[in-house]
Write a structure and sequence with these properties.
Layout: H1 2-14, H2 20-34, H3 49-59, H4 65-85, H5 106-115, H6 125-138, H7 140-152, H8 156-160, E1 167-168, E2 173-176, E3 179-180, E4 192-193, E5 202-205, H9 208-227, H10 255-263, H11 296-308, H12 313-320, H13 327-340, H14 343-347
Antiparallel strand pairs: 1-2, 2-5, 3-4
Helix pairs in contact: 2-4, 3-4, 5-13, 6-7, 7-9, 7-11, 11-13
Length: 352
């Protein structure tokens, strides 16, 4: 089992089929959830359906572990398909076609959403304006990044992974072909990562304001290219221009810097070595409403806005590069249900 899993996993690494974060998740699931039940030396063709079902059934009822169970099922299905393709087993020795994970019906999903905090996952238009107004007082570049996210629905890593070459200003299109790698030091190669999945490769049509933001950022970069000797230009758009870390000038910003800026204390905290952490603006305590602000909320805000405008779910999924059964669907169902609740009172106006 281990040899086949390792070969499958290495192939995905070498061919750069998925993002590093996804690969890390696969490795963690294998070591934490599969290996304890299926020892390394187990012969693949001898693994019964009942054992896999037992692994998944143990996880499914436990809180958010349904997602882990679904991921394990997906991992194992891919491994067995890989084994069949390489003649390690025959198709009739694949136990995965008989493994299922129950899905809730639409009414159950809507009922669950009523009890959830889904509205805390996105911002209303007025809330977005308030957040951007506060951020802009402290850091105009970060405000542009968050606004760009809200206008495009892109993941923060996709935004930070944009290069000038990926923008077609004649057609106002951004090609999402890479993400800002989540790990690595100050070398050009370490900053380029793969997007989350196949659906993530896409062209995003840009609004006029989104185009304006890109042009503003590129103009600033060109200024630094000309006048800042520490600035190393590799074509990234949203780059570091810090006087405190000149070695990083010209490198793409890291998403953790942005989230720390949003959520860290204004006074800063000490790290393990006793040095002050980067101070932030503690934005949650500056808002007139109660929501936790991270970079992902701006992507969700884009999704909720499109849902309110009546854009079909499939079109939204294509635009933001997400698959079915995701947070996109949850937000869509919640927002459209809210809209439906306003229809009946409006109908009475028809004959008045």
């Amino acid at each position: 089992m281990y040899e086949v899993w390792h070969e499958w996993h290495q192939t995905r690494i070498e061919q750069k089929l998925v993002a590093p974060k996804t690969l890390a998740g696969e490795d963690g699931r294998y070591r934490n959830h599969i290996l304890p039940h299926i020892p390394k030396e187990t012969i693949l063709k001898n693994i019964p359906t009942s054992l896999i079902k037992e692994i998944i059934d143990q996880l499914y009822p436990i809180g958010n572990h349904k997602r882990i169970a679904q991921s394990i099922k997906s991992d194992l299905s891919s491994i067995f398909k890989y084994a069949i393709a390489h003649d390690y087993i025959t198709p009739d020795q694949n136990p995965m076609p008989y493994i299922t994970i129950g899905r809730k019906g639409l009414s159950d999903e809507l009922e669950r959403l009523k009890k959830s905090d889904i509205e805390d996952q996105y911002l209303e238009s007025w809330e977005l304006k308030e957040v951007l107004s506060i951020v802009r007082k402290y850091n105009e570049q970060y405000a542009r990044i968050f606004e760009f996210q809200a206008l495009t629905g892109m993941r923060i890593g996709e935004v930070l992974g944009l290069k000038e070459e990926a923008i077609d200003f004649n057609k106002n299109i951004a090609s999402v072909i890479r993400t800002r790698a989540t790990h690595g030091g100050a070398s050009e190669d370490s900053y380029e990562g793969n997007v989350k999945n196949v659906q993530s490769y896409r062209n995003v049509q840009l609004s006029l304001r989104a185009v304006e933001i890109l042009k503003e950022e590129i103009q600033l970069n060109h200024h630094h290219i000309e006048f800042n000797p520490d600035y190393k230009d590799h074509g990234w758009i949203f780059t570091s221009k810090s006087i405190h870390k000149p070695d990083y000038n010209g490198t793409p910003l890291h998403y953790s810097v942005l989230n720390n800026f949003l959520n860290s204390s204004e006074n800063g905290k000490l790290n393990r070595k006793g040095n002050p952490r980067r101070a932030g603006i503690d934005i949650d305590n500056k808002l007139s409403f109660k929501k936790h602000i991270t970079t992902h909320i701006f992507r969700h805000t884009h999704i909720s806005f499109l849902a309110e405008q009546g854009v079909p779910l499939e079109a939204i999924q294509d635009r933001v590069g997400h698959t079915r059964g995701s947070r996109v669907t949850q937000i869509y169902l919640h927002v459209t249900q809210k809209t439906k609740n306003t229809i009946t009172p409006m109908i009475d106006q028809l004959t008045k």
